[in-house]
Amino acid sequence: MAITANPRRVDSRQHRLKGSLGTVKMVGLVLEQWQYEATSGGRIWYAIDDGERTIWITRAGAGHPRQTDA
Question: Where are the domains of the chain?
Answer without folding.
Answer: 2-68
